[in-house]
Design goal:
Layout: E1 4-9, H1 16-28, E2 31-37, H2 48-59, E3 65-70, H3 74-80, E4 85-90, H4 93-109, E5 114-119, H5 129-137, H6 148-157
Parallel strand pairs: 1-2, 1-4, 2-3, 4-5
Enzyme class: transferase
Binding site for ATP: 10-11, 18, 89-91, 99, 124-130
Keywords: ATP-binding, Coenzyme A biosynthesis, Cytoplasm, Magnesium, Nucleotide-binding, Nucleotidyltransferase, Transferase
Length: 160
């Protein structure tokens, strides 16, 4: 049986930190679904479709990765993909408390789906989409933080 993981997030926008987790996860699992969620507690810069398109562009060289959007409970999405795992990246200890709450709730909803935490590469441990957007907004250098396609899209968004 193939090992299938779901890697959820808002990815607004995708960064090299996200890509680090995706690429490493793709080496561990036979199939990784990148599940782009619309987080109702955030005000996104990019639409869900724009985020999906950017992720597809920057993951096109990873054959076992597929990108989709989803509205609803992550567990429902994972079940629809026959996924046995949820793949989550951790940057620092501060991420763990939030992630533990989500993981505990997901286990209540479906105890057969395991959550795997992967520590991001140290060089990306400070990186977040929010930081990238803030730097891009003021026309700062972001080429070492996001792929070229994302940098271009951010420059277009903040061209005004």
């Amino acid at each position: 049986m193939a090992s299938i993981a779901v890697c959820p997030g808002s990815f607004d926008p995708i960064t090299y930190g996200h890509l680090d987790i995706i690429k490493r996860g793709a080496k561990v699992f036979d199939k990784v679904y990148i599940c782009v969620l619309n987080n109702s507690s955030k005000n996104p810069l990019f639409t869900v479709d724009e985020r999906c398109d950017l992720i597809k562009q920057v993951t096109s060289s990873i054959p076992n990765v597929e990108v989709e959007m989803f509205k609803g409970l992550l567990v429902d999405y994972a079940q629809s993909k026959n996924a046995s795992a949820i793949l989550r990246g951790l940057r620092a200890v501060s991420d763990f408390e939030y992630e533990m709450q989500i993981t505990s709730m997901n286990r209540v909803l479906d105890e057969k789906i395991e959550t795997f935490f992967m520590m991001t590469n140290n060089q990306y441990s400070f990186l977040s989409s929010s930081i990238v957007k803030e730097i891009a907004k003021y026309h700062g250098e972001i080429s070492e933080l996001v792929p070229y396609e994302v940098e271009t899209a951010l420059r277009e968004k903040y061209a005004d």
